[in-house]
Amino acid sequence: MKPVKVGICGLGTVGSGTFNVLHRNADEISRRAGRRIIVEQVGTRRDHPNCDTKGTQVTRDIFDVATNPEIDIVVELIGGYDIARELVMTAIENGKHVVTANKALIAVHGNEIFAAAQKHNVMVAFEASVAGSIPIIKAIREGLSANKIEWLAGIINGTGNFILTEMRDKGRDFADVLAEAQALGYAETDPTFDVEGIDAAHKLTILASIAFGVPLQFDKAYTEGISKITTEDVQYAEELGYRIKHLGFSRRTESGIELRVHPTLIPATALLANVNGVMNAILVDGDAAGQTLYYGAGAGAEPTASSVVADVIDVVRTLTGDRDNRVPHLAFQPTELSDKPILPMNETETGYYLRLQAAEKPGVLASITKILGDNGINIEAIVQKETAEEQVPVILLTQRVKEWKMNEAIAAIEALDAIIGQVTRIRVEHL
Ligand SMILES: NC(=O)c1ccc[n+]([C@@H]2O[C@H](COP(=O)([O-])OP(=O)(O)OC[C@H]3O[C@@H](n4cnc5c(N)ncnc54)[C@H](O)[C@@H]3O)[C@@H](O)[C@H]2O)c1
Ligand SMILES: N[C@@H](CCO)C(=O)O
Ligand code: NA
Questions:
Q1: What class does this enzyme belong to in the EC scheme (predicted)?
Q2: Cα(160)–Cα(40) distance, integer angstroms
């Protein structure tokens, strides 16, 4: 049988890993795919020191790849929203299947891209876009397809988790660890995407769509990063038996779907609390399966290439199959996507960790607990730190409550004369 011809666009971290894995494991891959898969062409601005491209066509114009009549599968690894979108749409219009690691592209333009793919009868595969090496798309879309999924929670940004782990374990400086993550190829071109939770929100948007069967709605995700986490909060959380992790969390409720990314206190004994460094993990709760956990490297050249190449093999396997019976892009048949709304953040519900600075005066604690009580918020734990200063830190853990109620309570607490500055809030989940 004729070999299947792949064109790789972008020869950076993931592109070089993909190029090398496809070459190194070519025999094993063809035994699995049933066809020989060859890298016919590479589109890149510059050569990569780890890749020997002698014997491969190299072009400086990635659109040569998308329009090359010889190419069957275009692998988009340039990143970003705009040129990547144009490249992928061009490939689709030229009848090519597409494999991408670009979560920004899928989260923001995925609905349009999948519609075009449907129209042109090609596949767009995006396993590498979420959680690097972990086959989480396949697990949810195929492995858990019997389930009504209730919620999922995950550590889905490797750079952020690497930073939090190094800060906590070694007391390292934020900027210093970020620079190391960049040198290791983990970070996005613009690392604020990692640090401010945007990358995790892209990934969560994708996971929620395939878990709940709703269109991609990145603009409705609540996004908060790790840049404001202080060492004090890390320490207080530990004292209370919790750990702070940056989580993506999505849950089905009666009124809509929660879609939120933020630092979260989780019990120190929870499996997710012990996912460290660049590792990612996603916990999925399905009504039949119960909880299942998926763990692995969330970034890096070959861990990500593992998912890119698996998608290439998947596409090759389906080339001989029934075109009308492929696994749907978003797990549910395109005509069956639901219009269940994404909930505004105000309507979501979590527990809360609150830290505030109170003047050392009688009656302050009583006023705080009264405000919480008046707003129907139950307190689970309260700690007032002993100090020689005139201000004392007070830490509270509350039971679950709607965000809007907590906003009102926090505003009332901040208005008290005895409270200095703003109240720090970190949401709590008992996973
Ligand atoms: N690095 C990771 O660990 C990782 C993991 C999962 C997903 N991703 C995603 O994979 C994609 C690639 O990431 P990366 O880390 O390999 O980035 P990178 O910056 O290392 O590589 C991108 C390459 O594409 C090239 N490029 C960009 N625009 C181009 C253009 N118009 N024409 C030709 N070449 C162009 C750049 O020169 C660069 O060499 C991104 O979408 C990223 O979000 C990365
Ligand atoms: N910048 C991303 C790459 C993997 O998607 C991360 O650190 O998780
Ligand atoms: Na994946």
A1: oxidoreductase
A2: 36
